[in-house]
Amino acid sequence: MKDSLLLFIDFEFTMPEGKENPIGFFPEIIEAGYFAVSGQKVIEKFSSYVIPSHFPHLTARCKSFLKITQQQVSNGMAFEKLIERLSYLNKQAPTTVITWGNMDMKVLKQNCAKLNIPFPLHGTFRDLSMEYKKFFGDRNHTGLWKAVEEYGKEGTGKHHRALDDAITTYHLFKLVEKDKKYLAKPEPTTIGERIDLSKMYQKFAT
């Protein structure tokens, strides 16, 4: 690939039963989705459940919130295989990783550290939610699907499905980039700025 790679990633994580984490608990990736684009071409889209290594049994809260089953996750891919895919893809071209929020990369780094696996992604990292917040001057962070709705659009597929959220992030990225380019264009000069009106006034005054 000659062009740089835009890699839109979303993960879903395990959750404790209550709102507070029990001793030793940390979130693990249980569903991964990414959408890779180079230029205007879709290079790859990927979706898979992922088997958690340390806390393999999902809590009722996690299954209810994500509408996910224990069997789906237990039949998923090993975390190490996910890392291999991400690492291989990242090596194909200079990569910009784009996520909605910073939790995806934080949890990925933590999961890699817990299993003594090198972090697979290198390049530029962009938090689109932070860019959206700064661009529109919002005080608070906006949720992914709410941000899409503010553009008068709809999210792709179902919310809290990793690949659907990754593709929704891609579509929102295009909308924000389009607005940035539009606002960056210099305002066209007025007729008065292109014509020296003082000379015209002198001509008609004589």
Automatic annotation (TrEMBL):
The keyword Nucleotide-binding does not apply. Gene3D superfamilies: Ribonuclease H-like superfamily/Ribonuclease H. GO terms for molecular function: 3'-5'-RNA exonuclease activity; nucleic acid binding. Keywords: Exonuclease, Hydrolase, Nuclease. InterPro entries: 3-5_Exoribonuclease (IPR051274), ERI-1_3'hExo-like (IPR047201), Ribonucl_H (IPR013520), RNaseH-like_sf (IPR012337), RNaseH_sf (IPR036397). CDD domains: ERI-1_3'hExo_like. Residues 5-182 form the Exonuclease domain. SMART domains: EXOIII (SM00479). This is 3'-5' exonuclease KapD. The gene is kapD.
